[in-house]
Amino acid sequence: MRQLEARGCSWIFEVRAMDMAAWRRRWIMLCVFIVVLSACTPFIAPFDAIAYQNATSAKVETLSVMAQAQDPIAAHQAQVDQVILDIKKAREYAAHIPSNQTTVAQWDRLTGYLVLQFFDRWKDGPFLPDAIKERQLEAARAFDQIICLETNNREAKACPVQGGGP
Fold this sequence. Notes:
Blueprint: H1 2-7, H2 10-39, H3 49-66, H4 77-95, H5 101-122, H6 129-151
Helix pairs in contact: 3-4, 3-6, 4-5, 5-6
């Protein structure tokens, strides 16, 4: 180093020290920018018109088939199978939308607990009208929650808990 200073090159070390400080600042700025940018990514799925349409049509079809549960299921088995298929397709479509876990969990609750259980019970015999109304109300609330979640993917809002009767 003394040899370099003797040759008049001491300014190289000063420039390199300044360059290192500048690189550190740039590196820190880049890290801060990445953190800020990642904080701006949405935590909810974007609005999807197909998912919304799937949910609304599945609600109408499901409640319509449930209303016929005073009859033996054999008379409506094709409709029941179609409703189950439509619900499974809607759930699968929702599962492939990024950041849509809440909606998928609601679809799972709807299929596993409410609708499929209703149709399984229907195989044992027809329902009484009051039981049908009660189960329709539960299913309508679950569908309304899914529809609210799909609608509010435009902006984050809480979905009110309310009934959406048949």
